[in-house]
Amino acid sequence: MHAYPPPAVTRFSAVVPVKSFGRGKRRLSSTLDSRARQAVAEAVALRTVDTIREAGGSPVVVTDRPTGWGPGVVVVADPGGGLDAAVAAGLAKVSTRLWVVCHADLPLLQPRDVATAVEAAAEGRPVLAPSSDGGTSLVADTRRWARFRYGPGSFHRHLSSVAHRNPVVLTRLGLLLDLDDPDDLAAVLSHPRGGWLRLALPG
Q1: Phi first, then psi: what are they for 128, rounded to 5°?
Q2: Taking the CB of the first residue and of the last residue of the chain, which one, N or C, has fewer CB atoms within 10 A?
Q3: Which element (helix H / strand E) includes 188?
């Protein structure tokens, strides 16, 4: 997929919570039918996992689909209860000191985006990446968090919770653009990095 060597940094695991493909991406219903939405959600999630692997990470996928994630992926059953619960379940299976939580719906994500977050977190500061809608697309740290606060506007909640530790705010295109609505889809398909997604759409 990408020609990118894994970075020579501390080993890390990356939790990727994945919403059920059958229920996800409903805000794209005005543009895509249910079959196409499921195909897009699955393609973007699989690509996100591959990107993390290429950046040198060990993916931990929290999902209701137990198979089909490729070699070296730890799969954790989604416990239900939303994104906070899914992230907690994934982090419970992480054994590396440095961990990442990365959303699964980042179609322009590149290995360098993940590696940059890992390199910064390896120095002991928490790293947060905002999405364009005010969410939190990625978190990286070497300390365990007692609580996550996902949902609308989560970036500022997360930022406030670690403000005393001088966090790194990482703004990169691959982390800013998450795929939620028709405008996001149009932006991805028109971007040079997003041509791959057109091939994932059912004919």
Answers
A1: -130, 135
A2: C
A3: helix 182-190
* Alpha-carbon 55 to chain mean position: 13
pTM for the full model? 0.92
DSSP symbol at 172: -
Residue 9 CB burial class (10 angstroms; 0-12, 13-18, ≥19): middle
Residues sharing a CB contact under 8 Å with residue 166, sequence separation 6 or more, in sequence order: 125
Token pair 């971007």 is found at 191
- The domains found in the chain, sorted by start residue, are 12-198 (3.90.550.10)
CA-nearest of 55, 179, 203 to 194 is 179
How far CA 161 is from CA of 59, 82, 156, 157, in Å, comes to: 25, 20, 9, 6
